[in-house]
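User: Hello, can you help with two protein structures?

Assistant: Certainly.
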Amino acid sequence: MRIQRTLKMLQRTDFAVYVMDINDIGTDTNNDTDASTDTNTSANTNTNNNANTNNNTNTNTNTNTNTNTNANTNANANANTNTNTNTDTDSKNDDNDYLEMAKLFKKYNIPHMLVINKIDTVSQEQVKEAAKKFKDAVFVSTKDWQSILALKDELIKRLSEDEKEPPIVGDLIPYNGKVILVVPVDSEAPKGRIILPQVQVIRDCLDHGIKSYVVRDTELESALSDLRDIDLVITDSQAFKKVSETVPETIKLTSFSILFARYKGDLETFVKGVSKVDELNENSKVLIAESCTHNQSHEDIGRVKIPRLLNKHVGKELRYDFKMGHDFPENIEDYDLIIHCGACMMNKKSLQTRIDLCMEKGVSITNYGVLLAYLTGILDRSLEIFNLNY
């Protein structure tokens, strides 16, 4: 596929395949040869023109004939010069297109593969030259089935390498450790199931031999009495205040959202970004970004609870914009603070791209869990498990 140079495309790209026609690859050798040939042609033409004009002074007919002939010769020489120059410029531009795109892939942490096709239309020498210029490229021809199979194998190999992900909680808790997951059941909770972050944490615990106990916030106190040697309590961010009052200080506490801030984003950047809250005023503009497109309710955390708590903390009515799914604005510099959800419906690269854009524009960004921990006064406690301090 061909990747368009748009911000939204880059935000949604997990892995890029850039396809280049081998006939579009420019070579410096051809440019030098063409330039020399054209210069010599022009020089010879001008010399002949002067000679003919001087020798045929007395013969008007011959003078006109020679002048016309020489004029045509010059016109043809110039036409060739323009044709060669344009061809080489196009080739160089095609090379530059890829090099510019490769810089963007690197900037936004997007792994990519360069595929050079139509190799059956050029000589083996040209293929070797292209291989020297683009060492990591994969060369294919639709007329060579083996090259297509090799492309598929290479693509599978690179995608498999990209699939390796860090643990969510498995590196924080020892084998055979105990974790309590606090899952409030309110009007926001889906019927008949639990939400994706909770499912993923449970699976990560299973993968690493960690015992997980799932309770509602209303049964947390009795669960703490039933269990001993608890390593960590993980709560839904909305219940932070109540849970922090219930869980003893001797037991570490954090939230699903903060875990995902580390797992999919950049926890340290989110922690730094939350300090912007104390600089907000009535003229401040806040963007609340969610990765999914769920239906909102009167208890919606992003559109109701966070604005309410933030306004109360600042003591002013702030201005808010809300974006969902892939609808992330390009004018992020217009905002004083961006508050992102836990990004359970996004991949790590997509969220990291958004963080990088904010850093590039000098805009503070944080996430739901970090913000709610800060607003309830327990941010330091919620970061203890990560050996971080606010």
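That covers the first. Now for the second protein you mentioned:
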Amino acid sequence: MLDIVDERVRLGHAQSAESEVLAHADIVAQLAASAAGDARSGLDQHLSSLAEDGFIERQSGAAGGQFRILFRRAIFSLTRQSVAAVIRQRLGDKAVRVFNALSEEPNLTQAELESHVLIGGRDCKELLYRLLVDGFVHCAELSRAADFMNPRPNTAYYLFHVNLEQTTRKLLLNMHAYQDRLLTRRLAEVATNRRLLDKRQRVKELLKNLDAQISAADSAGNSDASAELSEQRAQAAQLLTPPEREQLETLKQSRTALRAGELLLEENIFLYELFLEFASQHN
């Protein structure tokens, strides 16, 4: 579906909250053109799942109906899920329950929140404090006027809520900082191992050159030259010692992990920036 609207998006509708209406037949045709196999296989199930998650809107009609991608709703939902994943990693599942409850029903007192998430007062208070400190939850202090039920005037009470836009901005700043640190570390590892990496490159080029010479000797039917070159190649392959090979493998794994972390950050940064762009339109 995204492929179908991609051209329209690039022509100036990147900030649209919704896509144009897409016919079921158009989706099938696009799948048939871009993927092998039965284009209809599992399509309706996937469309139903996307509709249940609120990412698309299904409209009745002939030949399978029509669909509209709800860009803004999807981005908001994905951003909230991403923030919840960060909370789960830092503070655990109970903290996610508190965050989700306040996202769905803001401006709750601690007592009201406890009844929503079924978490004891002491634990709920501790979770709220940690969520407040980390910027995932916010609160407003209000004064309760004196009345029959509250004889003490100006008693303060607190309403808790989630400000997803504010939280996302804070996380975005942290992500940019993490991204810089990952890049710095990856480059530092390369610089530290530069001599070994250069040696590996020289050995690689030498082996490639010897392979070409062996192939040429074989084509010319010169078995003696081929045998001599093969012996040279075997010796060249040993220029990298076992400890050096182990160090190179460790470096490769580390660089792969660092790059994977960078890619994940890039995905989340893109998501959060897109969310903030949609949020600014709504404000």
